[in-house]
Amino acid sequence: MWPDRRILDLFGVELPILQAPMAGSSGPELAIAVCEAGGLGSLPCAMLDDDKIRADFGSVRQRTSRPLNLNFMCHVQPVADADREAAWRQRLAPYYSEFGIDADAIPSGPTPITFNESGCAIVEELSPEVVSFHFGLPEPDLVERVKATGAKVIASATTVEEARWLEARGCDAIIAQGAEAGGHRGVFLGSDVLSQPGTFALVPQVADAVAVPVIAAGGIADGRGIAAAFMLGASAVQIGTAYLRCPESLASAVHRSALAHARDDGTTLTNVFTGRPARAIVNRFMREMGPVGASVPDFPLATPAVMPLKAKAEASGSGDFSPLLAGQTAALGQPLPAKELTQKWASHATQLVGLQVADPIG
Q1: In whole angstroms, what is the distance from residue 158 CA to residue 271 CA?
Q2: What backbone phi and psi angles, to 5 degrees, belong to 29?
Q3: How far apart are CA 226 and CA 340, in angstroms?
Q4: pLDDT of residue 354
């Protein structure tokens, strides 16, 4: 049925569809639905403490025994710069005044945790079938410990250079993240996100450069995108934005509303929410603050100062200060159950791939 079964055999899944692990917008319910459809469900762990990771993993395991991915971030923890953070909050002062927020009462708040000894111990305890990383890989000894559990290791690459780097350090498959993708760019060997290629350009070059299977990500939201990814040399796809309107997602009401009215030209890269470039639907905060600013504190130190604005605006039904993370094909999303949607995509893709295989051009 599928012209390339390497990911199916590697992960032990029925469909070559991975649910992107979207921190804050996905959890056990979405992972369960995708697993039960035959794809690979994912749990984002970077924002969770150990007890919450155990609880979410347990929730999934109570309802499905199918393969599951745990996702972690591997960013370099920044050194706090009091002057820079104070300047950042000063830039936000007019907004605090507008919403009646006491800037001095804003806590530092939770921020994503980079994969460390504690995260590795959780992986060893829970033994997920797949562990994925964003922003590179952890230290080699931690990678080896993860692989020793039997888990397959995958990570995101935004360039061919990053893909080769990941393969050389033990990745079992590479996620080729095109510029169309929603959420944070996975870049880790450079900083120029504007020069990174789109999915159509990236996937075939990564497929030619590495021996491990390639998972296409970015701008894929239906069966047509899946079929195209296979024609480009991918063995599977990772889909995120197209799942956000599903009832199982954790997307907020304002996020869902923005997605329902999304346009092809309605997203851009911004760093004003977290300090790291991410693709999101353009809103007031992005327009007025950037969308990319050089003075924004390093990831993830920018976030706590923005969260009170997000909370106040959302309380009145506004997404003006929310990170409405989404890819360029957000308009193709459908508010259908995730299991139904996954199987619908797979069915359409197999028809298209089958036609291509049976009647090749030339």
Answers
A1: 17
A2: -60, -45
A3: 16
A4: 76
